[in-house]
Amino acid sequence: MTRIEFDHHLVNLENNLARFAYSLTANQEDSRDLVQETFLKALTNREQFREHSNLKAWTFTILKNTFINNYRKSVKQNTTMNETKDLNFINNTEGSDFLKSDAAIAVKEIYKKIQSLEDGFRIPFEMHISGYKYKEIAEKMNLNIGTVKSRIFFSRKKLMRALEDHRPGKS
Q1: 79 within 8 A of 90, measured Cβ to Cβ
Q2: What is the mean pLDDT of each run of 10 residues along the chain (171 residues)?
Q3: Can you tell me the distance from the alpha carbon of 88 to that of 91, in angstroms, rounded to the nearest whole number?
Q4: CATH code at 93-166
Q5: What is the pLDDT of residues 94-109, one digit of tens each?
Q6: CA-CA distance, 167 to 31, in Å (whole number)?
Q7: Where are the domains of the chain?
Q8: Which long-range contacts (CB under 8 A, 24 or more apart) does 143-149 make?
Q9: Domain 3-77 has CATH 3.30.70.260
Q10: pTM
């Protein structure tokens, strides 16, 4: 595939990548940044793309891995070690919205709603948001990967419905 063909096919994937990025970030600005970072990585590593393989799957994998790596990096940056003898980890919330009472209430409500899910949905969902990959969840829970994906999808839908009152712009 020539460089021009590669670039053309990559640009044609932009809308699909944008939708996928938005499903991961739930934020329009963050999803645009994620797509741009994906494009940059795809163009920079074009020579690693194997001829006659699936460009769409390749770029979606780049996007998903970039999202996961960015998430893990942000979690690490916001975690500090306590100087107690058992070395507890404490989330650094200095200057964040978590200090505001409304946000603290919203977070408690979200956790309460997650805990109210049936175990078959809650456990894969919690593992997924903790950074486990679908395959890892499937192996640990002895489920098909498709079952894991659908349970996580339905958990998200249930939580979105249950938390409609807590969305920005809602009173």
Answers
A1: yes
A2: 89 93 89 94 91 89 90 71 52 49 65 87 87 89 93 89 66 48
A3: 10
A4: 1.10.10.10
A5: 544 444 555 566 667 7
A6: 18
A7: 3-77, 93-166
A8: 148/124
A9: no
A10: 0.48
